[in-house]
Amino acid sequence: xxxxxxxxxxxxxxxxxxxxxxxxxxxxxxxxxxxxxxxxxxxxxxxxxxxxxxxxxxxxxxxxxxxxxxxxxxxxxxxxxxxxxxxx
Length: 88
Prior knowledge:
Helix content: 10-25%
Number of strands: 3
């Protein structure tokens, strides 16, 4: 069944349907330190999100996925880019 999606599953894999509602159930504040919108004269706008950290933070990758999706949906059309990167 999942071969059509290109998702390899073992014969003993389990699959459960879960809710499709991605609404936050509690207030949740998410911020980066700086967001810059860059509008080059020869191309499409992009955003640069910056968050300083004093060291590696476990699970931070999930936060960046959220930041990028949110910023792209709020500030850019589907063709523009959001750059998320940094050093830990």
